[in-house]
Amino acid sequence: xxxxxxxxxxxxxxxxxxxxxxxxxxxxxxxxxxxxxxxxxxxxxxxxxxxxxxxxxxxxxxxxxxxxxxxxxxxxxxxxxxxxxxxxxxxxxxxxxxxxxxxxxxxxxxxxxxxxxxxxxxxxxxxxxxxxxxxxxxxxxxxxxxxxxxxxxxxxxxxxxxxxxxxxxxxxxxxxxxxxxxxxxxxxxxxxxxxxxxxxxxxxxxxxxxxxxxxxxxxxxxxxxxxxxxxxxxxxxxxxxxxxxxxxxxxxxxxxxxxxxxxxxxxxxxxxxxxxxxxxxxxxxxxxxxxxxxxxxxxxxxxxxxxxxxxxxxxxxxxxxxxxxxxxxxxxxxxxxxxxxxxxxxxxxxxxxxxxxxxxxxxxxxxxxxxxxxxxxxxxxxxxxxxxxxxxxxxxxxxxxxxxxxxxxxxxxxxxxxxxxxxxxxxxxxxxxxxxxxxxx
Length: 441
What we know:
Keywords: Cell membrane, Membrane, Transmembrane, Transmembrane helix
Protein name: MFS transporter
Pfam families: MFS_1 (PF07690)
Structural class: mainly alpha
Oligomer: single chain
Radius of gyration: 22 Å
Membrane topology: Multi-pass membrane protein
CATH superfamily of the largest domain: MFS general substrate transporter like domains
Subcellular location: Cell membrane
């Protein structure tokens, strides 16, 4: 009797291990952001090479997520998460080891940075495919765990970047690379030994009788097109990322330099946005029970508040005013990622999660550089205030246009309700697997 009860009870160890791996990965990424440019600059003494290293390291993000998503669904999220973190850790470890022993030519350094991003990127989609099963095993709420899970990148950046700076100042940039490698390797070990999630049946079958790599990629695209709620959310995020990613890397630095004539103010602005985002992300879990229970209103409301707050910068408040606005922008935007990932985990079939998370992430990333480029051109053409106002107004126009989209109303259908707005993607099995209900997992 005791054994049966213990077996049937919630298992929280896999969930804790997966969350810990996610936070270690986020902390490692923050160290990478600080360490890699300083390491390249220290070893080469060339700012041009440092810039090239940053470009080479970021380039695979455009395609590695989509390609990695297919591999996740084919070989399983747990296996890809472990292999991705393991190989990324080894590649990062090779950089300081080679530099200290045989030497590290610039082409080899760039190749290692490129390969590190290629192999590390699929881990994001892989861990997302593991999240729902371990949440169900732990008896937890999707919204609550997603708020903790999605807070990791923001907390990692706010806490990890300053710690990386202190570590590098005290011990040198090579130590930062070793710490970065260690975070990958520990994350791989946690998932390998503490997250015993059974791989989807279809991921094993795809190796022998599936439609092939390109066919599997098309299946992911087909789901995004034919499942209206996923397609609508993806389109919404692509547009908002175009607008969002001009704010932090462009508008805020120009505002600090040209309006306030203080480069130090930028640090306060970025810190306020990051801390606000952490607060907003953590608050979504409890707030999703009542205040933010309607997801569609939460989506529109958060973006409307962000738009109005950014519009207020048109009146050029002082440093304190901008810092407060940045904090509130972070709080308002915090609930969005955990809410959207909750909807996707509820709606996307288990055997397609890797592809869908990889593809939607890649789509979102492609619009961000275009937003920064467009904003920079507009600022050069007409100054800062008008582009900031226009970008904020586009938020409100987007909300007005999409307010009546019936597909976004499906965001509020909870698990257990029949999925009425979807079509079966080509070459997939429409019947539920044994032991599963009619709804997708």
